[in-house]
Design brief:
single chain, seven-stranded mixed sheet, elongated, mainly beta
């Protein structure tokens, strides 16, 4: 069994910063990529940032220059540093891990989400 657990959401004023964390644990054989998605009310879930096992990163245009994704491979943990937050960054942020479990099954595992609210 694989668990993906996010933490670090909360309420922040516009222009502020937050750091999200996500840890994957359990019956993991290999992780290929981890990433962050977000979903605002009435909107579809969208990719925010992702990082591959090789360290390559990709960002949504709306967060480039403000958000930074990083990882600790030894801990199967990924972080999302969010700076210069805007009201439109308000959403539930979900972590996902593309991995193979110890039974040989490869799939995308999702966390339960953490809420980020940017408001004055």
């Amino acid at each position: 069994q694989v668990q993906v657990v996010e933490s670090g959401g909360g309420l922040v004023q516009p222009g502020g910063s937050l750091r999200l964390s996500c840890a994957a644990s359990g019956s993991i054989f290999s992780i290929y990529a981890m990433g962050w998605y977000r979903q605002a009310p009435g909107n579809e879930r969208e990719l925010v940032a992702e990082i591959t096992s090789g360290g390559s990163t990709d960002y949504a245009d709306s967060v480039k220059g403000r958000f930074t994704i990083s990882r600790d491979r030894a801990k199967n943990t990924v972080y999302l540093q969010m700076n210069s937050l805007k009201i439109e960054d308000t959403a539930v942020y979900y972590c996902t891990a593309d991995l193979t479990n110890t039974l040989g099954f490869r799939g995308n595992y999702w966390g339960q989400g953490t809420r980020v609210t940017v408001s004055s």
